[in-house]
Amino acid sequence: MTHKSDGLLFEEEVLLVEDQRLAMDDCLFFTDEEAEEELHDQPKSKWKVLIVDDEEEIHNVTKMVLEHFVFDGKGLEIISAYSGQEAKQIILQEEDIALIMLDVVMEHDDAGLKVVKYIREELKNPFVRIILRTGQPGQAPEEKVIMEYDINDYKAKTELTAQKLFTTMVSSLRTYRDIMTIEMNRKGLEKIIEASANIFEMQSMRKFASGVLTQLTSIMNLNRNALYCHTTSGFAAVKSEGEFQILAATGDYYDHVDEKVRDVVPKRVLKDLESAFKEKKSIYYGDHYVFYFRNKNDSENMVYVEGTSELSEWDQDLIEIFCANVSIAFDNIYLNMEIEDTQKEIVFTLGEIAEARSKETGNHVKRVAEYSKLLALKYGLSLEDAEMIRLASPMHDVGKLAIPDAILNKPGRLRADEFEVMKKHAVIGCEMLKNSNRKIMKAATIIANEHHEKYNGKGYPVGKKGEEIHIYGRITAVADVFDALGSDRVYKTAWKLEDILELFRKERGEHFDPILVDILLDYLDEFLVIRDHFADQ
User: Fold this and answer.
1) Which of 78, 279, 302, 525 has the fewest CB atoms within 10 Å, measured from its CB?
2) 400 classed as catalytic
3) Which CATH fold would you assign to the domain 358-533?
4) Superfamily holding 202-335
5) Candidates 88, 157, 400, 464; catalytic one
6) Residue scoring higher pLDDT (91 or 137)
7) Which range scores top for mean pLDDT: 214-218, 275-279, 385-389?
């Protein structure tokens, strides 16, 4: 270890202590009243300053001089390290240090310089301000150090009187604040781009509302240290039938999805929501915020968030940019929903036309749709897949539109040649639908083509066996036969329920997927609820 000159150290101490006394006497930092007021009203957040020096007295004197220092409404949290190695450990743990006062000569002649390289090159931290302080300038010449190391200031310890220390602190912290503002703004803009891309990908209104709430909360907390953040609560709501209904929620409102806003929120929150709705604009209240969106189709949506810190003007500008994108995305969602609703309506209409032509009721396709969804969910398919089957299964017999009336509506048993013609409806339906790239139509193509295949390989049109048959086809086969047997047809009367169930037990693993038969039998009550709800008039 290289030891400092005792005389030099003594001179440093005397200068610092003397300047500290003069500063206090001359009210350099505070009057007595200001100091007392400051002690009673300490800033909640502080600038983190790391002092790295192997001399205890340097730490003590520096802390004494800076005891009441405040910049930009924030005091100091001074952290001490007594070696380069200890400094590295602290810097690794404390990511938000604003300023480092760093001695050069400690356990090694260049210990301080190694810390600088560690910060800039290994940790890739260009933000923290580094002031190199040395009692032996000849050990690390200023010109060489400034050129070769990424430091922000170079001071001989004899230079740092209380006044100079104060000036250096203000200058360094102001620079750090401005750099971090730029960095946060950069991150904020990146977050806006990322969040906007994310919400534009969402097509479900419920997922979209949840995404908006998540991204908005993330943007609002972007500049906050996670240790100091409150738990954020909020919800996204859409106006439906004259009332705002919660589509997505977090925190205190998490359990209130699908409920009316009026029945959930406190009166004060309801009052703020009504103000935003009446004024048709977003309103910032300090610790809670109401974001209002109105779209081209005159639909109205609101997002409410509470439990965050007060937003700066820049934060508000970022959120306004995000909200503008959200408004456009809302329009796209509603347009997409309108297109999807139109597609669904066309699918059901085509299915009903096919059934009507064979003198069957439109409720058959509705029941098959709901049975199919229930089977899919119980089988373990995702909600998205189950909904896809529900929407596509009404098209299972669309190919019957090409079957002659004499065969389609023959009251008696079909001859072998007539049955061969009837069997063609599966392939015809597939040919009618296969050229569409829409997900619903692709699913409908599979169902139309495979819903008459049998698990034992004796079905048509191809004779697929077991799991060679697409799960969409296997599910629709169970749903279609279960409903057809229980309904009146031109060629038969409805079967009794016990007879239908007996057939399914018999055909388990033959005509039908055994797992799906077990689901039908195990959850029969739920299927009967659907049957009764969509009963033929």
Assistant:
1) 525
2) yes
3) Hypothetical protein af1432 (1.10.3210)
4) GAF domain (3.30.450.40)
5) 400
6) 91
7) 385-389
